[in-house]
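job 3f2a | input accepted
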Amino acid sequence: MMEGAGEELARSGGVGAVYLVFSRSRRPDRPALIEAAEAISGLSVSHDPFGRDYNPDHARGRARSKSEETWLELLQWGMTFDCLGLAPGPAVSLPAIEHRLNIPVDQDLGSFEALALSPGPHLADAANSLPVVRALLDMAASLAGLLDGVEAVCWGPARTAMPPRFFRSAVASWIEGGPFPALCLAGFQIDPSGRLCTNGMDWFLGREIVLSTELSQDRSAATRIALRLIHEIVAMGRLDHRIEMSTEEGLSLSVEPVGANLIEVNPM
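job 3f2a | predicted structure (268 res):
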């Protein structure tokens, strides 16, 4: 983390962050996070502002930014990531959640506390690349399984929230060669025209995906189509020209970028 950036990152969680959400007073401190990291193969602490001799009482008397008490730099797959919001310092600010997956609507996530995992400053320009996202999600899933008290996992770019067990399963499947975890990394909503739209795919594609009104009449079927398309298109990267694809049922689709922000999907 760069000098002077600590307090701002500690508030926001950084760019492309995964948030681990805890009940109040359950966030891990530095020793707990280090212990969990050491138990995960391939993950290590690459920088600790205070070192292993960290003592909270002593640290508060040192002439350092208070934000230094809240973070560690982690090394995963040769890339560095910031872990922000560690106790006893302030929690990071959780983004307003717009899409909940098996999280009760009446559960006030704003009453919880969060720490954030985000790409380090040198990865800022590649934060939305698949290698960086895969490393980040694999690390987050592993930590969510080892740290006590994780109540939910949130993905910042799509403002999604889900139970940690679902997140861990979807990420593990992707890492092992399965489908892109679109339910974790994208939201789905119906626009005023009755079209199913994604929320968050612009992080990966620079555009959101919109299914035609005809394709969106059956919400479940439309979501299945969107999940299939997302898996295929994310592997391609940006889509800048029209392509044709087929559903598992054999329905032919026209998939075409329109304007600067959308990919429209229509039956052929």
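job 3f2a | The chain has two domains: 6-175, 186-267.
job 3f2a | closed
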